[in-house]
Amino acid sequence: MSLIFSGMQPTRQLHLGNYLGALKNWVKLQNDMDAIFCVVDLHAMTIEHDPETLRSNIREVAAAYIAAGIDPEKHILFNQSAVSGHAELNWILACHTPLGWLNRMTQFKEKAGKQKDNAVLGLYAYPVLMAADILLYKATHVPVGEDQKQHLELARDIAGAFNRYYKADGFFPLPEPQILGEATRVMSLRDGTKKMSKSDESEYSRINLTDDADTIALKIRKAKTDPEPLPDTVEDLEKRPEANNLVTIYAALSDTNRAAVLAEFGGQQFSAFKSALADLSVAKLAPIAGEMNRLLGDKAELDRLLKKGADRAGEIAARTVNEVKDLVGLVRF
User: Fold this and answer.
1) Which one of the listed residues 109, 195, 219, 284 is annotated catalytic?
2) pLDDT value of residue 11
3) Bridge partners of 15?
4) Average pLDDT value over all residues in the chain
């Protein structure tokens, strides 16, 4: 049976990059196979955080999932910490993960930088927790961005090593990455060479999923461009980071490709293209913001949906954890 697992951290606001790189694709994938969508709140604790802000962000990310089109009745939607199996399997898998494998993870080096000795263990070891998140449900497919592909490869290595060690061929499937769509990596609206980020100081660098129609349109109009008209070919487009980013966003929002966008707008000035992009962005994103606000206005209903999802996820997780405990030789009652 094919099963998708994916999740996002509840750190700061979700933005256009999260929507185009993940949520939009998840909504499509949920029609093709069973799916489990998780707010990975334990991962959010690898950096300094405020407890009240974390609680608020967990609900906001859950609301974004639903507002974008994830169906919490048909599929499972929950927050990670509500299912203890994630932490249990994390420890067991950590006992089967060589340090050398973790030392190769480039994201830790990038995030810790020169403060490596002061970084918390969770930041170093979180790829093992990510593996546990996926393997706990025996997921077969994982939609990921390019920056998480290395961690999924580690999850496959851990699964294979566990299966071999306990002579349990196929116990954990080796999950396949799914990197989909034109906009797998959305760049900043202020700098086409940098990824769109929640941590960027400039609000005009990104479109937040909570932005209203006027704000979305303003940010598109203020997006950095260059003085030349739009090119006619993708080859020429890729030499111009800001132009490439805006055309990529248009292609992703309109479910087409960059060549088709250039066939329509190539040779035109940015003013006309930006006007069309602003209209398209407002049409696609403003309804999501409206639905998010509605959901966040009824926290009791949002929490009910999360608990229902956690109960369903917990049943699957408990079966896997019990099977794992039997394999590794733990006594359970």
Assistant:
1) 195
2) 81
3) 208
4) 93
195 has catalytic annotation: yes
292-314 per-residue burial string, b: 16 or more CB within 10 A, e: under 16: beebbeeeeebeebbeebbebbb
Q: Which residues touch 320 (CB under 8 Å, ≥6 apart)?
A: 85, 89, 135, 136, 137, 138
Torsion on CA atoms 138, 144, 314, 140, rounded to nearest 10: -20
* Phi (first) and psi of residue 79, to 5 degrees: -100, 135
The pTM (predicted TM-score) of the whole model is 0.90
Active site residue 28: no
Say which of 24, 111, 224, 307 is annotated catalytic: 111
- Catalytic residue (one of 74, 198, 274, 325): 198
- Quickly count: other Cβ atoms within 10 Å of residue 27's Cβ: 16
List pLDDT tens digits, range 209-236. 999 999 999 999 999 998 999 999 999 9
307 is an active site residue: no
